[in-house]
What we know:
The complex is a heterodimer. Chain A has helices spanning 3-22, 28-54, 62-79, 87-109, 114-134, 136-139, 160-183, 185-195, 197-202, 207-233, 243-256, 263-281, 285-299, 303-331, and strands spanning 145-146, 152-153, 155-156, 235-236.
Amino acid sequence: MALKDRKKILTVMIxxxxxxxxxxxxxxxxxxxxTQTLVLGILALSxxxxxxxxGLASLGQAAYLGMGAYLTAILVxxxxxxxxxxxxxxxxxxxxxxxAGAAFFGLFAIRATGVYFLIITLAxxxxxxxxxxxxxxxxxGDNGINVMMxxxxxxxxxxxxxxxxxxxxxxxxxxxAMYVLVNSPFGRTLVGIxxxxxxxxxxxxxxxxxxxxxxxxxxxFGGLAGVFWTHLNGIVSPEDVLLPxxxxxxxxxxxxxxxxxxxxxxxxxxxxxxxxxxxTLVEWWQYILGGVYVLTILFLPDGLMGLMAxxxxxxxxxxxxxxxxxxxxxxx
Amino acid sequence: xxxxxxGLNAVTDLNLDIYPGERKGIIGPNGAGKTTLFNLIxxxxxxxxxxxxxxxxxxxxxxxxxxxxxxxARTFQITNLFPKLTVLDNVLLAAQGVSxxxxxxxxxxxxxxxxxxxxxxxxxxxxxxxxxxxxIHHLSHGEQRQIxxxxxxxxxxxxxLLDEPAAGLSTGExxxxxxxxxxxxxxxAILMIEHDMDVAFSVVNNIAVLHYGKIVEEGTTDEVRASxxxxxxxxxxx
Lengths: 332, 238
């Protein structure tokens, strides 16, 4: 592994360690926002796998979050299932239902690319929203389902610090898993497909299958985020599977930098803090959020992560120039 | 075999055989159907009538990737690489394409030593060892044309389809390309489309001339060179 990669990994580990150490001592509101960022961060990771690594822009990722979220809520509401140590089962089931949902929808979606993929994932997302909104007997329709209690399996997750730590651990696991995935032979094939699908076919790849598997995996991570989403908010409603969450997830990735993994969670942090924190300070926070999006897309096509790279090249350029000037000065 | 696009017979009643170790060239004026022929052989387009057989296997209905796994590789007339990846990454992708490890998700690609050894060897043979970490889009056109072929070779082909390997190359580069092609394993069958006659004649033994989707002349390089019909097609005499 290259030295550059090691440095990056170390930076991410230090940042994550700081988040883990700092958050339990932060005030309730900030802690809630960080927890929300981490949950949306998992969703953003799943979007980045598709957008950044495979080159597929999905506008329906909230569907898989919704599947995990509704599964969690329905099981708690109907069967009181998942409030103890069976939470671990719920987490597995959340991943499974997200992956299964994606496995079904992928049959339709993966045939398309580009804008068509965007539209078809959007349509499939709306199908899930339609089910959530209309299937009253199962989903509680427009009212959604209230989940009054968080699980308690020796550790009481109704305590926000404990809940944060749970989400934090799973976020770190997700990030690690994604990192291994995108650097695995399979992950590299996704990048190849992003760069040139025709060439990949000519090299012996069944590109459809690779994209399909990526879609299913992304669905699984979406489902996982959904389980936490329900317990974070204490309620799940059709709004949670509606377009804005999907759009947010996509924009978070674009904002942070697609194809970087950590870009998505960084974008999630920016969006969550502008929306939840800034909105308590100023009424026109939406203009700020919109402005950030527009400026990023106009001037930072590689997102905020691209900004860091830009600063770096700018600094090395400058130091090289200074070095050159200094040495030419010596000659004189 | 034939291929009909709408009302246009792009390739008509074409019969072409190629044997192990054979080096065959396909020439013909623009629009003769040369690249279409490649697309039919590789399965990019389905054939309308007839059949495609690879190594004795009927593959007419097979998708491209299955045909490739049988031992067929192809390069593109218009360079088709992974521009933002490094030379090594390009070759790695090509080399893992025909192995089952391409589905492995739980290990880093860097942990597959055999794969890396194979790619390093290929790059060494092609003279790219010192440039293996350069991103493709930083390479010159000539170098990219060469990487096209390296990628094809990385899939361990028995049949290599080259679509104008010397397209856009200078005379010097074309000669280098021809020399490089002549160093390849003599067991490898090569079917090559080429406009550059110097390259074509120095690499292949047999030539088929394609005109309006039909083979109008087929024979050794000398026979084709002497053929009146070929002169007629190219120069419009008579």
